[in-house]
């Protein structure tokens, strides 16, 4: 892990994210050791629509917006995550994510995640449950 945060601090923040909330302290600490902490100045693109994704991003501090062209799709704050679909497929990013204030993210690459998850099936269950919840929320929003 790199960046100014300790592995136990990143593990604590990972455990607060719904996608990893069901994991044990040991699992969170192991996962945190594989994360790379990256800082982004305000008005910096974190990920770009159409580019290949490398993994999941957990916003540790700051704020970001998910944008499609000029339209803001979502506003993200510390503790929220994006890019979880990249853990399961290799499709290009579906939107831009831009830091709107100085921000820090823990980045979990797809290959590091799968190396960890192969021996921890409950990790996959946790990720899939959260992705299903998000998909249901999106479907609900589209039909309202």
Please work out how many helical segments DSSP would assign. 4
Overall helicity: 25-40%
Strand order of the largest sheet: 1-8-3-6
Report the top-level CATH class.
Mainly Beta
Structural features, described:
It is a single chain. By secondary structure, the protein is an alpha+beta fold. It has a single domain (7-110, 118-136), classed as Jelly Rolls. It has helices at residues 7-16, 25-34, 110-117, 121-143; strands at residues 36-40, 44-47, 55-61, 63-68, 71-77, 81-82, 96-99, 103-109. It has a 4-stranded antiparallel sheet. A hairpin with a 2-residue loop joins strand 4 and strand 5 (71-77). Helix 1 packs across helix 2. It starts with 6 loop residues before the first helix and ends with a helix.
